[in-house]
Write a structure and sequence with these properties.
Layout: H1 14-22, E1 27-30, E2 37-42, E3 45-51, E4 58-62, H2 65-74, E5 78-80, E6 89-93, H3 99-116, H4 119-133
Antiparallel strand pairs: 1-2, 2-3, 3-4, 4-6, 5-6
C-alpha cells in the first residue's frame, strides 16, 4: 500500500517525504524535538521521523517486530531505529533503499500506528475529517 500520486523514486528528498505523508489520512507534521527533526503523527502518535538537516537523508518508521528483523537482515541500509525502540522501529538510509520499498514501509508504519489507536481515537479522527470537509 503506497501513498497514491507519489513517484516512489522521488522519496529521496524531504519534500517527497512530506508529500507522501500528506497523502496519508489524518497525517500531521510536527517538530516536537527541535527544528531539525521532522515528525509525522497520526492521532497524536509518531509513525515517521527524519532529520531535515542531515547530509544523508534517513527516515525512521515503526514496523512489526518480525518485519523489522527481516528487513534488517535483507538490507544493509535498514538499521534499528536511531534513538528509538530498536525492536519496533527501523531507520532507512534513503539513498540506498529502493523508493518503492520506502513508500511501502511508510504506508505500513502509518497503518500500524492508526490500527493501534483506540476505537474512540479513530472515531474522533473520522469526525474531524468530516468537519474539515464541510
Amino acid at each position: 500500500m503506497k501513498p497514491s500520486g507519489l513517484d516512489p523514486v522521488a522519496i529521496h528528498t524531504v519534500a517527497a517525504i512530506r508529500a507522501a505523508c500528506a497523502a496519508l489520512p489524518h497525517s500531521r507534521e510536527t517538530f516536537p524535538f527541535g527544528a531539525a527533526t521532522l515528525v509525522f503523527k497520526v492521532g497524536g502518535k509518531m509513525y515517521a521521523l527524519t532529520d531535515i538537516h542531515a547530509e544523508s537523508l534517513s527516515l525512521s518508521l515503526k514496523v512489526r517486530l518480525e518485519r523489522g528483523e527481516a528487513l534488517r537482515a535483507e538490507h544493509a541500509a535498514i538499521t534499528p531505529g536511531y534513538h528509538l525502540n530498536k525492536r519496533h522501529w527501523i531507520t532507512l538510509q534513503l539513498d540506498s533503499v529502493p523508493g518503492d520499498l520506502a513508500c511501502e514501509l511508510l504506508a505500513e508504519s502509518h497503518a500500524l500506528v492508526l490500527a493501534g489507536l483506540t476505537r474512540a481515537q479513530r472515531a474522533e479522527l473520522a469526525a474531524s475529517a468530516l468537519e474539515s470537509e464541510t
